[in-house]
């Protein structure tokens, strides 16, 4: 691409600044120590504020270029543009990042207290998954709200208001519209979601009521029942496993698709410890060169789900072309999460679980029933997505305002009444670090359903019947071109259809 060599040089310069920032963020999330994240972010932004570079990009936007060359310029332009609108916007951006950094440290190091003792999120989830006493599960669930007040006291509402102010000064309708534009998505993409959900709610609720009566002897499944019901449907989820052999187990599964993860520089940090983030992450430090996985597992089979998901992110990175630095910036978060979700789904397939269980028929029956139950509940994910949106559509001045919004959103989206006074929300790290992002997981699931359907039509086989063919299909149809197209364009290119929730129904 000699025509855009100057553009590629600019992209490489910005990329190097991002790599340095990513390494420091990894250190902060895995150790709790900040070795200069704010300073590295400032240098990254200074790179994007470079006027000479921006003028060069604007110059290239006016040139006659090939499609892929134009895409490179478009991606870089979208990255630089916000930092050349006003100095006030740039100051707000730094304030936002500083506040995110402060709040992230709290999220990473905070530990809940249960029955007078410090408890990890892994241990809480095991209570929610296995404890037969519904009241104990309820207490475990509400234990998660202990971080709500510390986050608000430390400035979470200030962060929301800074983001609102930024979007207004930018010229967007609201912060949601700003983020959708940033992600190259239609600002009206969510318009029909609630109406489509409401069409399905009676059927969903009727089925959920049957499960509730059968398993917990009640009419309504509560949040503290969800993981427990999963475990009753499929007791194998809670099988105790030896996690020390996790890498070999992951490698053998990906080998079936013709993907050898031992060739990739993927770092795993998977066991809990003090001051380490309790979430699951993939840090794509440098595409196709350095990918790092943070997780928190102990000894249960279901915990392999996060390892499969984050490894899915890792292989996506390593199957991209490291020379296409700018195009790799254009990969949609939906495609990224979709690929990760797809591999996470193999937790319930013989290709992965066969090495852990001897009674294959019994386990397959369990996981088949679980998949049916999970699909029944899949549209409920819309509730959390719209709660995230509601933070930016309403005036918030206190923690009670956030709780009121939580219940109002639940009533409007799921038509459900409150189940307590202080619902846990701040433990979901995305509200702080990745706002207006949760739709990527849900839309990623829709993408998985589409890919499964298209593969079956083209190869007249299920994925597990021709895994190596599927591996090639995934690499050639999704991964390699994933930065060259906007999400909706790639979805239509593969399926022949526009994005639609119908794939989940």
Automatic annotation (TrEMBL):
Keywords: Hydrolase, Metal-binding, Metalloprotease, Protease, Zinc. Coiled coil: none annotated. SUPFAM superfamilies: Metalloproteases ('zincins'), catalytic domain. The lineage of its organism: Bacteria, Bacillati, Bacillota, Clostridia, Peptostreptococcales. Residues 128-236 form the Peptidase M3A/M3B catalytic domain. Belongs to the peptidase M3 family. The keyword Hydrolase applies. GO terms for biological process: proteolysis. One of its GO terms (molecular function) is metalloendopeptidase activity. Its cofactor is Zn(2+). This is Peptidase family M3. The keyword Hydrolase applies. InterPro entries: Pept_M3A_M3B_dom. Binds 1 zinc ion. Pfam families: Peptidase_M3 (PF01432). It comes from Alkaliphilus peptidifermentans DSM 18978.
